[in-house]
Design a protein that fits this description.
Largest sheet: 2 strands, antiparallel
Number of strands: 2
Strand content: under 5%
CATH class of the largest domain: Mainly Alpha
CATH architecture of the largest domain: Up-down Bundle
Strand order of the largest sheet: 1-2
Bound molecules: heme C
Number of helices: 19
Structural class: mainly alpha
Number of domains: 2
Helix content: over 70%
Shape: elongated
CATH topology of the largest domain: Formate dehydrogenase/DMSO reductase fold
Radius of gyration: 25 Å
Length: 444
């Protein structure tokens, strides 16, 4: 473990690179599924009534839909692979080894999905209406399959369940939070279809059609309003006890006014979701006549914020692991970390050329150790920095703190022997500007 070189993303830290790409990607990718259902259902409905106005609208809508999902969805997907492969190579390697066949299916599914999206758009009016409608349903079926697959991998990271002992791939895939998560995500896809659609519908020129479609599209938000709280509760019941306790404390603390980041995010999610529903009811549902495009964009922006907050919570709950109870964020296996004080990081890590610590290289080696073990969650002086967190600590305190810190359950244990721990403490001491120790004073 700790086998890969580390990508130093200075001020912000690598996590934010993945996060910022992933949030936008998830937002668009879930719309790509819900929007597919919206197209299929609405086209079915319009064909039954032979409603040419709605069919005309759908044709324009599918242009926007195809461009957004194929260009943005595809770019975002590539972006995520680039980011996770560089920021957390050990994590992605573990996932690829486990889920090889599932990833392969996922990529084929995605390719077919894009092909059908193009075919669907370009065949308006060129094939029979029935065949065109079948394409819409086929698109949704395939797109939904991609959710069903990727959901197994995402939930595995948080709740690997029996896989930890059995190493059985089906235990990994159909893990404890798999089913509640599928339902939650399905409900979200419908809401996003509603959100994107009210924005699109707000631009329809002909007033009668605009009012009709706005009223109709707002309904897409409603099922999840009732489903989501129930399903989220179901989801939380499947979490490991320590993680569930985090959430419970987070919610309990809202009343006490003790606002941790998790609590703030949970609060934000609740407030934003309720706002979205209330505003969509009052706006496009009850008063479609006065609803405007920029109003729609504002609601959509709230939707993006909720997506960001929920994905952040999901990520936060898993820390300090990439794969819960198995692999730490910094690439250390939990089983290896059990023997942390005898690990000998310099001996094991091939990316640190110096193997012996001397008075001259101690701080430089400390920096290397920081890079390998801590940079995945901290920076020296940017995001979640040593400068802030260890502010005012002296070198001996840091040295001792390095082995007592992981007891907080937020961090993996420090991997290394005493000399290595001393080197890291000296480096952090330099970063926070602690007075020099006897060890280093002679070399200044
Ligand atoms: C899995 C992510 C992760 C890794 C890896 C990690 N930390 Fe942390 N660390 C955290 C979190 C989360 C906190 C709590 C942050 C907060 O309170 O804002 C924290 C807190 C700290 C604190 C402040 C603790 C206190 O008592 O207030 C220090 C110092 C620290 N880490 C040092 C390190 C060092 C040194 C390493 C590498 C050996 C490291 N961390 C590795 C996640 C991590």
């Amino acid at each position: 473990m700790l086998e890969f070189p580390v990508w130093n993303v200075h001020a912000a830290g690598g996590g934010w690179i993945i996060g910022s790409i992933a949030i936008v990607h998830v937002f668009v990718a879930q719309f790509a599924i819900g929007g597919g259902l919206y197209l299929a259902v609405t086209e079915t409905w319009a064909l039954r009534r032979n409603d040419q106005a709605v069919l005309g609208f759908l044709r324009g809508y599918s242009n926007f839909f195809m461009l957004l999902t194929t260009v943005f969805g595809a770019l975002g997907g590539v972006g995520i692979w680039f980011a996770i492969g560089n920021v957390n190579p050990t994590g992605i390697s573990a996932l690829i080894h486990n889920f090889m066949f599932f990833w392969a299916i996922e990529w084929v599914v995605f390719l077919v999905e894009i092909a059908i999206a193009f075919f669907y758009y370009y065949s308006w009016g060129k094939v029979s209406p029935q065949f065109h409608l079948q394409l819409a349903w086929l698109y949704w079926g395939i797109a939904y399959l991609s959710l069903v697959i990727i959901n197994g991998i995402l939930t595995f990271m948080l709740t690997p369940g029996d896989w930890i002992h059995t190493r059985n791939i089906w235990d990994a895939f159909f893990n404890p939070s798999y089913f509640p998560s599928v339902v939650v995500r399905t409900a979200i896809t419908c809401s996003l279809a509603g959100l994107f659609s009210i924005v699109t519908c707000a631009r329809i020129k002909e007033e009668g059609l605009r009012v009709r479609m706005l009223h109709y599209s707002a309904k897409w938000l409603m099922p999840s309003f009732f489903l989501l709280p129930i399903c989220l509760y179901w989801f939380f019941t499947t979490l490991p006890p320590t993680v569930a306790a985090l959430v419970e404390n987070g919610i309990a603390n809202i009343g006490a006014g003790n606002l941790s980041v998790l609590t703030r995010l949970l609060l934000l999610i609740m407030l934003l979701s309720v706002t979205i529903y209330v505003v969509s009811l009052l706006g496009p549902f009850f008063n479609p006549r006065s609803f405007t495009f920029s109003f729609g964009l504002a609601i959509l922006a709230l939707g993006l914020a909720v997506t960001g907050a929920t994905e952040s919570v999901r990520e936060m709950l898993r820390k300090p692991y990439v794969i819960y109870d198995y692999l730490y964020v910094n690439g250390t296996l939990k089983t290896v970390a059990a023997d942390s004080t005898r690990y000998g990081l310099l001996r094991q890590n091939k990316w640190i050329p110096e193997k012996t610590i001397t008075d001259q290289n101690r701080v430089a080696i400390g920096e290397q150790l920081f890079r390998v073990q801590c940079l995945s969650c901290h920076t020296p002086s940017g995001y979640r920095s040593m400068k802030d967190l260890a502010h005012g600590w002296d070198r001996d305190f840091i040295f001792n703190r390095l082995i007592s810190l992981p007891a907080t359950n937020l961090m993996p244990p420090f991997m290394g022997d005493e000399a290595e721990r001393r080197a890291l403490a000296e480096y952090i001491g330099d970063v926070v500007g602690a007075p020099p120790s006897e060890l280093t004073a002679a070399n200044r």
